[in-house]
Amino acid sequence: MRLFNTVDYAVVDYESASDTIIEQAEQRSSYGVFALPVHGLVTAVQDLLMREATQQAQMIVPDGQPIRWAMNYFHQTDLKDRVYGPTLTLYVLRKANERGLSVFLYGGNTQETLGKFADFIREKYPKVTVCGQYREEEADGNTLSSEAINKSGAHIVLVGRGCPRQEIWVANRLGSVDAVMMAVGAAFSFHAGTIRQAPTWMQNAGLEWLFRLLMEPERLWKRYLLTNGYFIYLFLKEAILFRHWRLN
Fold first, then answer.
1. What is the band of 202 on the pLDDT scale with cuts at 50, 70, 90?
2. Please, what is the Cα angle at 8 between 213 and 230, to 5 degrees?
3. pTM (whole model) above 0.85
4. End-to-end Cα spacing for the chain
5. Beta bridge pairs of residue 104
6. Is the Cα torsion angle 6, 67, 81, 186 positive or negative in sign?
7. Is residue 136 within 8 Å of residue 88, measured between CB atoms?
């Protein structure tokens, strides 16, 4: 379902999304998955490269309560919950563990985060093989080759490089990496334990952005001030057009 004439979101829940991801992983399909909250959607509206990347992804899940609310309002999808990237990651890892699949980790805001995330997977999902882990300082992400990932035997590549770098990286490697590539951002830090997640009640109320802003004000104030405000503008604009269309 398309929001703001830009991003086509999948109407999925955690179970259906993770089932599809595991099915594609077992077939070694080159398959791109994005978990886009408000920030990702607004970035796609404003940034051409990000918008082109979203058009290539095979699955974009509604990561964020405001995204779910918008889909339910404009498309009557009746979604009961968002599909939050860090939680979807756990669903995928659990099912990958049941099947003994291999996972490659690419990203993390520090080497410590990457290492702790790998340790988390080995401890919680012992039948998942962490077949490779890689982090780089360079912004363009050209030093990790598709060939290296394929040689590792990865079924799934978890990518945590921040939006929009991770989505553009995945889009540029569709067709050359024989694995499911999931752009999941903060999942690395959350599951590594280096950044705290918002309490459940704040997540359910769509206030996770406020919790993260309080945790990292210097880094995130501009993002949330601008993107949240622009999302509200887009929603109201679309709602007026939607109401006019329904009345006519």
1. confident
2. 40
3. yes
4. 22
5. 132, 157
6. positive
7. no
